[in-house]
Every structure is written in C-alpha cells, then in structure tokens.
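To: structure desk
From: M.T.
Subject: fold request, one chain
Message: Could you run this one when you get a chance? Sequence is below, nothing fancy, just the single chain.
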Amino acid sequence: LPFDRRPRPAPPTLRQPGAEMRRLTLFSTFLLLACATVPPPQRPGHGEAMGGGQRPLVAMYGPDCAIGKTRYERLRTQEQLAEVWGNHLGKARSYSVPPLVDFAACEVIAVFAGEVWNSDGIQVVEMLEDAGVRRVRFDHYSYQSTGAGGGGKRVTPYGWFVVPRTELAVVLEENVQNLIGQPPVWKERARL
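Reply: Done. Structure tokens follow.
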C-alpha cells in the first residue's frame, strides 16, 4: 500500500543499548572542547578595564535610601561600614546589620545620588587603574516614564560596591551623557 499506516519501529541506532550514553558522551566531549578554546583571563594593562570591564566583586543598589544628599564614601573598616549602613537605612536601622566584608582584601565604595528622577539605583560601568589612581565609573539604572506631569518618580538611589582593596587614590566618575545610544561622557565627582 502506498500509504501504510502501521507503526514503524525506531531506527536501529536509537534502539541499541547504550545509545543515550553515547550521545551524552559526545555532547560532553564537545562542551569540554568548546570550553578549552576560551582564552584565560588576562591582568589589566595600563588604562584597561579591570577584568575586561568586569564589575565589582559585589554590587548592591536600589532606588530608596535615607541619605537624601549626594554623598560618596570609601569604607575601609567594618566600623565605617556599620556607621554609613545605619545612615543609609535611616529609621529602619535596627532591623538590619551591615554585610560582613573581608577588609584585609577588599574595600567598599558607596555612592548616594541624593534626590533624582527615574533611577532604580547606581551601577559601576568600569574600573580602571591608570596614572596612579583607580577610576570607578558609574551610571544610573535609569528609565523613562509617561503619565500625568511626565510620570516621573522622585527617588534617592544608591550603590554599594565591594572592590579589591588598593592603596591608590580612588576617583569616582559619573556618566553625565543622557542621550540614548550615545557614548558616555565622564565627569569627576569625587577623589577618595
């Protein structure tokens, strides 16, 4: 019959014992070879982004902070962190303890933007080490809004960044360019 509707058995290669294991072995071998061709990370050179433009070791950010004025902090002890963390929380201070940080290997950079519009927090875009300083470049997680009066929301965004400890001076630079699709324009905000 030209249109035989009888069920057909699976091809012999799929019915053989161990076929699934062979496929898994082939996939694992392919994955291993693909990973082996990725070059290892390189140390940053003069003026290059740390880790190829990687972010800090840990980043915490958000739109609401009790610190209502623009403020920049470089924290090098657990005591300093506890004090600024308490200021950041304001009235909620007793409900949370600051994170524990290994200050022998790390330090914390805190950025408080004060009152601004439409920001979900602060992000570090890149860190560079050049001319005897560490440049920490940051920008807002900003968004557009619509609605009555433009629909904007007044917020007090912040960013906490755990970075490798350095004895270099830290220069904070903010991206002040606000046009979509345009390259950043960095403006120095603080030397810590």
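Reply (cont.): Residues 19-36 form the longest helix (18 residues). Let me know if you need anything else for the meeting.
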